[in-house]
Each structure stands twice: as structure tokens, then as C-alpha cells.
């Protein structure tokens, strides 16, 4: 057999596979949402926002947060939602075909999910629900939407760590209804917001090592 007819060098094949893998990783990093941004935005919003609600409820004579605390909380949640939608839209802006449609639908699902929460809670209010039931409902349903959408996004991008975080948030959301007010706010701040920020830190370390 002539030298030119010899099979490819195994080293050359390994290098080719490494190049392909590096290209796939680069494309994934360019298209898939950056977990550090998503987890960080919601982690800060929840940690600060729920601590404000908890502090206000504990210090007030009525036993629940005042209007200022809810305003701060709403602004923080709105900011986190805006960051999420903008980040996903930016990551999928240059993509065409099925991937673009999937990214767009996932981004709009956040708005739809929270719109559904608002409509549900308006219905509970009109039905005469007590302020504690409304407080627990707003808290649990909003967190449940985030947890479920994280899990759904993880399935789309095949990210099991994001799936675990989504599952954790969903379970924490349900657990908050067992504590009442203001205990539910403290649980969401520490287990919800703290969990998000921990996940963001882990994602940052993993990204620097090339593992996320």
C-alpha cells in the first residue's frame, strides 16, 4: 500500500473531533442563554425583594408588607423579567428556522406565564380571598412559573443543572405556602434568591473551567 493510501493518523482524527466539539461548544455558548445572567438577575430580585417584604411585614402593625415594600418588590421582579426576555431575544436574534422559533416562543412564554398569574390573582381578589391567601398566591405562583420555565428551558437546551435549579425553585414555591406570612418571604429570599445566586456562582466557575 502506498503511503498516500494509508489510513488517517489517529492523532489527526482526534484533532478533527476536538475541533468539531469546540465549534459545537462555541455555537451553544452563543445561542443558549447564559445561566449567570438569568440566575443572577432573578437571584438578586428575589433575595433583595423578599427580604424587603419580610422586613416590612415584621415591622408593621398589620402583619403584612406596606405599599412601598410591594413597589420595590414589583420593580425588582419587572427588572429581572425584562433582563430575561431581552437576553433570550438577543441570543436568538441571529438564528433562523426551528431554533429561532423555539427561542422566541420560550421568551414569550415568560410574559404569558406572568400574565396568567396576574389574571389568576385578580380573580382570587374579586372572589374575596383574604390578604394572606393573596400574598401566598402571588408568591407561590410567580415562583412556580419561574421554576417550571427554567425546567422547560433546560429540556430545550439539554442543561441538567438548569433543570435541577428549576425543580428546586418549583418545590420551594410550593413549600412557601406552608409557612404563612411573613415566613414565606424569608424562605423565598434565602432558598429561592440564595439558591439562584449560588447557581450563578457555580455557573461562573464552571464557565471559566470550560465545563458549562
Q: How would you characterize the overall build of this protein?
A:
By secondary structure, the protein is mostly helical. It is 81% helix and 0% strand. The protein has helices spanning 10-31, 35-59, 67-91, 98-126, 131-157, 160-176, 183-208. Helix 6 packs antiparallel against helix 7 (183-208). The mean pLDDT is 83. It contains seven helices and no strands.
Please sum up the structure shown.
The chain contains seven helices and no strands. By secondary structure, the protein is mainly alpha-helical. The mean pLDDT is 83.
Q: How much helix is in the residues?
A: over 70%
Major sheet: size, sense and barrel closure?
none
Instruction: Decide which structural class fits the backbone.
Output: mainly alpha
What is the rounded distance between the termini? 45 Å
Strand content: under 5%
Shape: globular
What is the count of DSSP helices, taking H or I runs of 4+ residues?
Answer: 7
Helices and strands in order:
Blueprint: H1 10-31, H2 35-59, H3 67-91, H4 98-126, H5 131-157, H6 160-176, H7 183-208
Descriptors:
single chain; 212 residues; mainly alpha; 7 helices; 81% helix
Amino acid at each position: 500500500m502506498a503511503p498516500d493510501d494509508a489510513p488517517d493518523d489517529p492523532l489527526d482524527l482526534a484533532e478533527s473531533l476536538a475541533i468539531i466539539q469546540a465549534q459545537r461548544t462555541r455555537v451553544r455558548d452563543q445561542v443558549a442563554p447564559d445561566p449567570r445572567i438569568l440566575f443572577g438577575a432573578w437571584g438578586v430580585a428575589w433575595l433583595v425583594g423578599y427580604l424587603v417584604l419580610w422586613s416590612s411585614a415584621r415591622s408593621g402593625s398589620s402583619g403584612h408588607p406596606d405599599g412601598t415594600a410591594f413597589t420595590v418588590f414589583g420593580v425588582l421582579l419587572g427588572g429581572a423579567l425584562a433582563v430575561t426576555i431581552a437576553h433570550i431575544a438577543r441570543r436568538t436574534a441571529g438564528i433562523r428556522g426551528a431554533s429561532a422559533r423555539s427561542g422566541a416562543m420560550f421568551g414569550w412564554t415568560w410574559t404569558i406565564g406572568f400574565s396568567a398569574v396576574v389574571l389568576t390573582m385578580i380573580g382570587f381578589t374579586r372572589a374575596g380571598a383574604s390578604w394572606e391567601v393573596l400574598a401566598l398566591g402571588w408568591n407561590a405562583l410567580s415562583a412556580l412559573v419561574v421554576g417550571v420555565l427554567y425546567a422547560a428551558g433546560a429540556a430545550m437546551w439539554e442543561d441538567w443543572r438548569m433543570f435541577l435549579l428549576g425543580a428546586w425553585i418549583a418545590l420551594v414555591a410550593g413549600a412557601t405556602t406552608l409557612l404563612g406570612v411573613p415566613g414565606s418571604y424569608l424562605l423565598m429570599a434565602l432558598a429561592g434568591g440564595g439558591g439562584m445566586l449560588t447557581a450563578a456562582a457555580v455557573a461562573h466557575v464552571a464557565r471559566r473551567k470550560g465545563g458549562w
